[in-house]
Amino acid sequence: MNKLVRIDTHITVQQALDFVEAPDCGGVVIFSGNVRNVTQQKKVTKLFFECYEPMALLEMEKIANHTIEKMGVKRIAILHITGEKLPGETVVVIAVAAPHRAAAFDACEYAIDTLKETVPIWKKEYFEDGEVWVAAHP
Amino acid sequence: MNKLVRIDTHITVQQALDFVEAPDCGGVVIFSGNVRNVTQQKKVTKLFFECYEPMALLEMEKIANHTIEKMGVKRIAILHITGEKLPGETVVVIAVAAPHRAAAFDACEYAIDTLKETVPIWKKEYFEDGEVWVAAHP
Amino acid sequence: MRVLLFGIAKDIAGKPVITVDGVNTVAELKSYLYKTYPRLEQLRSLMIAVNKTYAGDGQVLQASDEVAVIPPVSGG
Amino acid sequence: MRVLLFGIAKDIAGKPVITVDGVNTVAELKSYLYKTYPRLEQLRSLMIAVNKTYAGDGQVLQASDEVAVIPPVSGG
Prior knowledge:
The complex is a heterotetramer, with 2 copies of chain A and 2 copies of chain C.
Chain A: E1 3-8, H1 13-20, E2 27-34, E3 38-39, E4 42-51, H2 53-70, E5 75-81, E6 83-85, E7 90-98, H3 101-118, E8 121-127, E9 130-133
Parallel strand pairs in A: 1-5
Antiparallel strand pairs in A: 2-7, 3-4, 4-6, 4-8, 5-7, 8-9
Chain C: E1 2-5, H1 7-13, E2 17-19, H2 26-36, E3 47-50, E4 53-55, E5 67-70
Parallel strand pairs in C: 1-5
Antiparallel strand pairs in C: 1-2, 3-4, 3-5
């Protein structure tokens, strides 16, 4: 297997790294996204992620396939959490192994950019005085 | 401290990640370089890295400073091993935390590209039938 | 036809699943949704997924399809 | 003046430190090195570091400087 897509309540960089690392690829590029403690000058108390899980997994797999078929990637892991997270906790990890590091950088950035545009996952930010679904309104 | 540069006999992605992660940055980009088992169709048995350590640390620090002062990076860790390594083992790790992920990708790629050009570290590849200092000759 | 709702769309409808009858295409479903839940029109975008794939307005809906309302995504 | 050697330069010289006298600039040091160890001329590049910083050919050398011969680097 050259791709791993997973939605879980807890994910780590190490899981993704362990999946993609192999002695035939010299370089691994990883993106790790964490909950920020402040957004638009407001203190974030927690986040909640809701997933349309079967479709989200399919969209994550499309991203993985594109990087392998078109971008020179050997192995890719795309992990996303679901449920509640506190500031500092990891919500998404993408790890890419490729023979050429420029390809690994390009594919990892493509994967996180595309995930944020197409994968049906929704983030609700909780503040001390309320809550909001992120990016829902113009 | 917003930068960590280290040359050691053993390094891990987790060390670099632990240093740069903080709740004020949403994204971390990591490059991890490993010993490949094959180079130019020849099986690699081991690698040996020699460092001019005090100068290498200074050059690594220059790279770190540039990413923080000019590329929008909040924290960066640059780790490189010295000594012998086997195929699959990690020889370099660069982790970058930035408020904007595009900046983190750019800075991480800049850091590894520049490290390979300027930092006085030399790699000797061992094959079943000999050994060679990498990139020494045209 | 059962229609799944997520994120803010679920909050606006007040439930995670609604039943919609008499719509034959994605466009007709959207019209029904905007009429029934006007606050959906204020969202930055509204996509419909049919059988776990994004669907264009012209796509014909079958009773057996898995249909879902996808408000603006914000993963990662 | 003590001159440190690394990587393939150390192998070519057969030792990690050499003593060089009568050179006043980086250019003169390089000439001395090429004359004494002709195989150094076959390298892809040869840099000199003075006090742990890359130095241009015109840089003047002091007896107290930490001088190092830097063959093509290959870290990472």
